[in-house]
Amino acid sequence: MTKIKCTVAYDGTLFHGYQVQPGKRTVQREIEAVLSRMHHGQLVKIAASGRTDAGVHAFGQVFHFETPLHIPEDRWTLALNSLLPNDIYVRQAEEVSEQFHARYDVKKKEYRYRLLTRPEPDLFRRAYTTHIKQPLDVDAMNLAAAAILGTHDFSCFCAANTDIKDKVRTIYYLSVRQEKDDETVIRIVGSGFLYQMVRIITGTLLDVGIYKITPDRVAEIIDGRDRQAASATAPPQGLTLWGVTY
Amino acid sequence: MTKIKCTVAYDGTLFHGYQVQPGKRTVQREIEAVLSRMHHGQLVKIAASGRTDAGVHAFGQVFHFETPLHIPEDRWTLALNSLLPNDIYVRQAEEVSEQFHARYDVKKKEYRYRLLTRPEPDLFRRAYTTHIKQPLDVDAMNLAAAAILGTHDFSCFCAANTDIKDKVRTIYYLSVRQEKDDETVIRIVGSGFLYQMVRIITGTLLDVGIYKITPDRVAEIIDGRDRQAASATAPPQGLTLWGVTY
């Protein structure tokens, strides 16, 4: 058996998230269906770096699978892309050692969250940005971001419905930048992320950006470890899993 | 009765074009349904500057309608947008004289066609660009564009299935510009456009850009007045009706 690692982009708009759910169109289901077809109907399971929620996009999601087929690395991308629907695109495929695991070996993940910051909505970016009508104080948001950097128990930024016990994670990088006249992008790199963590951090930074809470308040929220103290979860469509490092 | 002129943007992806067709989701149908709802079920017809094909977008389509309601101009946009689906957005509404007609009074129309020019596709622009894998010779395309400028019988750039007899139109402006590392945009302004004219012009300019035909050839194609001599119709999703001048 050969182990293949794939880097995949997908547009989350028309998926019920990454993970297989009975009767739903999900990214995992579409990829496994194509792989099973390539393996003459034999079930092929894939393991990804983690799941993404409905509406969340990926530019550099990673998954692996094992195969008895002998196909050159660059032929895997061609074969998969010719069979996959046009909202999934395999950017790279490579052979990896049998020890590699797409989920357990993650060192860092990067997410980006795009905010459309202007009074009017934009139809053509509605699936890829979250529209914020008010102006945002980017400097205040970056002050707040500084408090999130480093290793903390991030219970305050974890959705309530999770079984995960250890909520300590490390945030290596977090920036808020105005990248166009009408677009502000949040970039965050961490050792790993709790359920809906990036969206709750985004919601909290947004509240700082519109002066609903002060930048200083964010350190207190982290120390308190209480989800109720943080802000509302930002919508999924602005979020993209940008890349995974091993 | 008051006549209202509206400027509307729509994402053509999920529409079967602009014009009402039985049993299909079209832009006209959605807008008329909302207007009829606002008029307590009374049928309200709209007249647009022209139709757009399935998959074609609009940033500045214009339509008008007549109403017995007394609503301030800026309230029309709020009322319509609160009821319209999220792939249609009324950018402006204004009262006009009863002589105004959105179709018959058109002086100029501008279309833009976005080309994604790089080897790899981009999932996130697939609904708004046409992907061209080969490099394009933009200078050659602009040479060809110069031959299209001015007043001509454009039979060569008109889809065969049309009833229109007079195929003389004036092109005021036509440019091909690389606007990003991986995006080239064709802008065209004319007195009016025949059925699929912009997409056939785009297809012809693309053939110039990849050296399939020479820039000189385009003047001959126009003179010949034969649709078969021009190139294939470019796909709809790269095209946007940018604006209409009265």
Index terms:
Alpha-Beta Plaits; 5 helices; 246 residues; 2 domains; alpha+beta; homodimer
List the helices and strands and how they pair.
Two copies of one chain form a homodimer.
Chain A: E1 2-10, H1 27-38, E2 47-48, E3 57-67, H2 73-83, E4 88-96, E5 108-117, E6 130-132, H3 138-148, E7 150-153, E8 168-180, E9 183-190, H4 197-209, H5 217-224, E10 239-245
Parallel strand pairs in A: 3-10, 5-6
Antiparallel strand pairs in A: 1-3, 1-4, 2-3, 5-9, 5-10, 7-8, 8-9
Helix pairs in contact in A: 3-4, 3-5
Catalytic activity (chains A, B): uridine(38/39/40) in tRNA = pseudouridine(38/39/40) in tRNA
Subunit structure (chains A, B): Homodimer.
InterPro entries (chains A, B): PsdUridine_synth_cat_dom_sf (IPR020103), PsdUridine_synth_TruA (IPR001406), PsdUridine_synth_TruA_a/b_dom (IPR020097), PsdUridine_synth_TruA_C (IPR020095), TruA/RsuA/RluB/E/F_N (IPR020094)
Uncertain parts of chain A: none
CATH class of the largest domain in chain A: Alpha Beta
- Beta strands of chain A, count: 10
CATH architecture of the largest domain in chain A: 2-Layer Sandwich
Major sheet details of chain A: 10 strands, mixed
**Helix proportion range of chain A:** 10-25%
Number of helices of chain A: 5
User: Which superfamily, in CATH terms, is the homologous superfamily of the largest domain in chain A?
Assistant: Pseudouridine synthase I, catalytic domain, C-terminal subdomain
Largest interface chains and counts: A-B, 15 and 15 residues
Principal-axes geometry of chain A comes out as: globular
Topology pattern of chain A, helix = H, strand = E: EHEEHEEEHEEEHHE
Domain Pseudouridine synthase I TruA alpha/beta (chains A, B): 8-105, 144-246
Enzyme class (chains A, B): isomerase
Binding site for substrate (chains A, B): 111
Keywords (chains A, B): Isomerase, tRNA processing
